[in-house]
Amino acid sequence: MSTTRIIFTFCLITAVLCICTTSFAAGDEEKNTAAVRRFYDEVMNKGNLKVIDELIDPKYVEHYVAPGISADKAGLTKIMEMYRTAFPDLQVTVEDIIAKGDKVWVYTIMRGTQKGDFMDIKATGKKIEVKGVDIVRFVNGKAVEHWGVNDDLTMMQQLGVIPMPGHEHPQEHPKQ
Q: Number of structural domains, the chain?
């Protein structure tokens, strides 16, 4: 076989592998995006916690851990139960979603009314609207890791646990 033919064959095989890998990754990105959307819809919005077993790997690791909650699949289930109990009308809206490789980035707005206890906060009857960003990593179609950032300060202010700026209680000044 001539050198030119070997180089041509090598280039052709490399091009085919690149195209196949890109197509495979794009297919995975679509599946992972669909899984994240399903999690928000089924688990968070509807409270169907059984879906966690379908979407979350047994070796799942949570990097945005609430105090007293384990950083694993059982902890995720517990935190979802806690949110659904405290905010029975909870709705999470996906504002933007981007998938790249094995990760999905999501910008969300979570809304609900606190009708049950949430962590150590007794039911307030107050509404929340909390923005957040989640990053979820997938392996073989299941979530294996999650990183998240929610505007917890705003949520605590909306629940009345932390005063809003400008609404602090005036400090008493000693008489002079």
A: 1
**148 lies in which domain range?**
3-158
- pLDDT, one tens digit per residue, over 20-37 is 444 445 689 999 999 999
Q: Report which residue type is found at 64.
A: Y
pTM for the structure as a whole: 0.79
Contacts of 120 (CB under 8 A, 6+ apart): none
How far apart CA 73 and CA 60 sit, in angstroms, is: 6
Domain annotation covers residue 93:
yes
CA contacts within 13 A on the Cβ side of 63: 12
Is 173 within the bounds of a domain?
no
Give the full edge-to-edge strand order of the sheet including 91-100. 56-62, 142-150, 127-139, 103-113, 91-100
Residues 83-99 have pLDDT tens digits of: 999 999 999 999 999 99
8 in a domain, yes or no?
yes
Alpha helices by DSSP H, listed for 39-143, are 51-55, 73-86
* 176 domain residue, yes or no: no
Our measurement of the distance from residue 12's CA atom to the centroid of its chain's CA atoms, rounded to an integer in Å, reads 41
CATH number of residue 51's parent domain: 3.10.450.50
Whether the CB-CB separation of 69 and 75 falls below 8 Å is answered with: yes
